[in-house]
Amino acid sequence: MSGRAREGELADRTISVETSAPESVGAGFRPYHRIRATFAGAGGAPLVQQRDILRVGPVVGVLAYDPAAACFVLIRQFRLGAELANGAGELVEIAAGLIEPGEDPKLAALRECREEIGVAPRALLPMVRFLPSPGVTDEYATLYLGLVESRDVPAEAGEPGETEHTLPFLVPVDEAMASLTAPFPAPFANGFVLIALQWFALNRARVDAFVAEKG
Q1: By C-alpha distance, which of 135, 131, 150 is closest to 192?
Q2: What are the pLDDT digits (tens) for 146-162?
Q3: Which CATH class is domain 58-214?
């Protein structure tokens, strides 16, 4: 027995780990690699895990917010994974996408907003970083709050070169906040949206100060 659990720090940490060279097990929309990781397991004995990982890497997401109109700009976009999971493939989303190699995350955020909601934010506030599903992918998301003019948002957007079609729409802030306490199940299932809205709800003072600073 290793004894009872004790209090610990609420923070991720590094450990000593050895990883094998990635072995390709599939090539398509995203690379798919098999990797073996060796690290200390129970009692310090070596533990070897072999995992197949979808390689996505760094991504950005932007919760587009118009403080003057008191609304968010969200989008609807078809996602095959959602369709296969629950049959509701037209997801509610925030503007989001890959950070290109060498690209500054803020520039990626501006680009994704232009592509997916048709307008670029005039200012960005970093919100949170998180790993959407670290058991199966190395996707690492950075979310921003972006100040936009909702009156300039078109009804359709997307990057044709990426076979992307998005449908921007406006949601009053009060309605979005109320959705966080709606009865189970929630009317939307996208984790990026849930995390962004919950951050906004918990950081209204910070948001108000940011809006006052940026005008």
Answers
A1: 131
A2: 999 999 999 999 887 77
A3: alpha beta
